[in-house]
Design a protein that fits this description.
Blueprint lengths: L7 H24 L4 H8 L3 H23 L2 H8 L1
Amino acid sequence: MRGDSWDTSYEFKIILILSIAFGLVGLDRFILPVLFPSMMGELKLTYEDLGNLVGILAVAWASRRLAWATCPIAWDVARY
């Protein structure tokens, strides 16, 4: 490959890998309530504790995405 040509297949591969990674993290967040019955006994948690756990995780995930989306560094990285 020459230095002045652009490899678009590499871009598509990276986007695919990142999409799968973010999808798996999102899946972990949604699968957590399904695992509550087994977690409750082992960790001595109530439904209120588990609800707070899901809420905190959702707020943390959303605030991190919002912070990254509004960050000027993210804009510079997206430009290139």
